[in-house]
Design brief:
618 residues, alpha/beta, 7-stranded parallel sheet, 21 strands, 34% helix, disordered C terminus
Length: 618
């Protein structure tokens, strides 16, 4: 089956006469399981997150003898998948997880889908029932290749020991090249138990898989002309710039052009938040300036971004005056949601480097953009509608203030991993991201339960860096068992639970759109007559729960104690730390564009519609 850059079906390795050439007489004869572990060593996998079971068990025996691969035993397979993602996002390397067949494999579906949406390089290795039993509904059998076909970049079913080495090599190559993504390798138990000759490197056979990385020169020149001719350009930067390691080139291009830069949720840190040309994050909960800049721009230069619905709002009203330059390594993304005037297929690093040269050539010919009036508008919006929040009138903790102070008191190179919901948006707003790969989150899938295992993976991959997980009390209850994994494996992450006693973002929507009818969003067991969390109810008690899992745990309820508690958490580095921040339940995320509405309807705060005047609409 030929393979393209897009997701494809299961690939069944075909019989071949060689594996890395003719098996020499000196080639060692190993079991398939030993071949698997040797292959992982050779491709540079130093950390595997996993949980053993019957069909993958043969692989765990030689894994015990490996001195080059560290295995971290998770408490749930979903944790293994998110940890592999966090590891990959923090290190830039391929994340690896390994689980058994049936329910072990299906528990990976959520993190695989999450990795696919956010283009994370990950290899998931699953055990499968013996090849002769496939299709018989054998014990713990699941067609994981069929199940994950829509959410993997590619997947393999391996039924012969001699195919394991080259399949692992191919899986890592596919996962890490082109548009990165998850690759699944499903290995039958008898393939792991059989003997085979092992030699490295193997011959890879990937017909049709040739990602385009070098952009077309004509398209680059056309984009550079549009940039210098535009009056209101915006550089719309997505996660692809981070994946390509193109942040240095981006800074050069931005400063060369003088255009404003907006970085998506997946791209925070790819351009310094503090840079004067940075106008914030776009989208449903983006800054007013970023949202409005895109709406009123006459040219959008999209770099490794995909015009997803959270950024565009109602698509047919998005950026009505703008021409589009769209650069992406995945040709399927170009024109998918918004037609491109100048489509550019290529690696973001090469695209931006070539754009720099092309813009310089335009400048040499005397063609420079004049964005004076544009920056006058942008700066007025920035000054009029800055990000901010009000402190609760009752003197309780503000969640925004908690997150802001964690960011301000953390070491400069701290990595932050967020769950999904209000706390995720506040963390994107009120922590300054100055470096790439310091912000990890589930952007496309919006996976609750992501933060704790992703932080664990990041800390395992970057042990010398401080790692804070900013989590909600809802998200935390989905995957907090991985704190046990952290405690037992010397992975001292720090977790801030932004505890408002509710599913906060859902509650916010109920407040705004459902007449404050809080149906099934209160997380505490006790409620008052209005459906709000009853005072003093703590089920579970996160401090006791965290202590039971081997963590250092603190609770903070008084704003006067905030800095002291954060400093106490930062000082503990010999075990995981969990801080239960009891925050006001009515805090909301602003700005906001309601789902399905135009970005022109952005609200700066509840009841506050920005007034841009009439002069920007000409």
């Amino acid at each position: 089956m030929p393979m393209t850059e897009q997701a494809t079906g299961a690939h069944h390795p075909q019989p071949r006469a060689r594996n890395g050439g003719s098996p020499a007489a000196s080639a060692p004869h190993l079991t398939g399981a030993q071949s698997l572990i040797r292959s992982l060593e050779e491709v540079g996998a130093d950390t595997v997150f996993g949980l053993p079971g019957g069909c993958i068990l043969p692989a765990y025996d030689p894994l015990m003898d490996s001195t080059r691969v560290r295995h971290i035993l998770v408490r749930h397979e979903q944790g293994a998948g998110h940890a592999a993602t966090g590891y990959a996002q923090a290190t830039g390397k391929v994340g690896v997880c390994m689980v058994t067949s049936g329910p072990g494999a299906t528990n990976l579906v959520t993190p695989i889908a999450d990795a696919a949406m956010d283009s994370v390089p990950m290899v998931a290795i699953t055990g499968q029932v013996a090849s002769g039993a496939i299709g018989t509904d054998a014990f713990q059998e699941a067609d994981i290749c069929g199940i994950t076909m829509p959410i993997t970049k590619h997947n393999f079913l391996v039924t012969r020991a001699e195919d394991i080495a080259h399949t692992i090599a191919e899986a890592f190559h596919i996962a890490s090249t082109g548009r990165p993504g998850p690759v699944l390798v499903d290995i039958a138990k008898d393939a792991l138990q059989s003997k085979t000759a092992f030699s490295w490197p193997p011959v890879m056979d990937l017909p049709g898989y040739r990602p385009v990385t070098k952009p077309h020169a004509k398209q680059i020149r056309e984009a550079a002309k549009l940039i210098t001719q535009a009056k209101r350009p915006v550089l719309y930067v997505g996660g692809g710039v981070m994946k390509a390691g193109a942040t240095a080139e981006l800074k050069v291009l931005a400063e060369l052009t003088g255009a404003p830069v907006t970085t998506t949720l997946m791209a925070l840190g790819s351009f310094p938040d503090s840079h004067p040309q940075h106008v914030g994050m776009p989208g449903m909960h983006g800054s007013v300036t970023a949202v409005t800049a895109l709406q009123k721009s006459d040219l959008i230069v999209a770099l490794g971004a995909r015009f997803d619905d959270r950024v565009t709002g109602k698509l047919d009203s998005f950026a009505p005056y703008a021409k589009i330059v769209h650069a992406d390594i995945d040709p399927a993304e170009i024109g998918k949601n918004r037609a491109a005037d100048v489509p550019i297929v290529g690696d973001a690093r090469e695209v931006i480097a070539d754009l720099v040269q092309a813009v310089q050539a335009e400048h040499t010919e005397g063609n420079t953009g004049d964005y004076t009036a544009w920056w006058k508008d942008l700066n007025r919006w920035r000054e009029t509608y800055p990000l901010g929040y009000d402190l609760p009138e009752d003197g309780s903790l503000s969640p925004q203030q908690v997150i802001q102070r964690i960011g301000e008191l953390a070491p400069p190179d701290t990595i932050f991993a967020a769950g999904v919901g209000q706390h995720q948006m506040w963390a994107s707003h009120f922590i300054q991201y100055e470096q790439p790969a310091t912000w990890l989150n589930s952007g496309g899938a919006g996976t609750m339960g992501y933060a704790v295992p992703a932080a664990m993976g990041a800390k395992a991959g970057m042990p010398d860096r401080t790692v804070w997980a900013i989590d909600g009390d809802g998200c935390f209850q989905m995957t907090n068992q991985e704190l046990t994994t952290c405690a037992l494996n010397n992975i001292p992450v720090k977790v801030a639970i932004i505890n408002n006693g509710a599913l906060g973002m859902v509650r916010q929507w109920q407040t705004l759109f459902y007449n404050q009818r809080y149906s099934n969003t209160v997380l505490h067991s006790g409620t008052d007559t209005d459906g709000n969390a009853a005072k003093g109810t703590r089920v579970p008690d996160f401090v006791k729960l965290s202590e039971a899992m081997g963590c250092y745990a603190i609770r903070c309820e008084d704003p006067a104690d905030l800095d002291k508690v954060i400093a106490e958490a930062n000082a503990v580095n010999d075990r995981p730390v969990v801080v239960d921040f009891i925050v006001h339940e009515d805090a909301m995320v602003w700005p906001m564009v309601a789902a399905g509405t135009s970005n022109d309807e952005v609200m700066a705060a509840r009841g506050v519609r920005p007034d841009f005047g009439d002069n920007e609409d000409d």
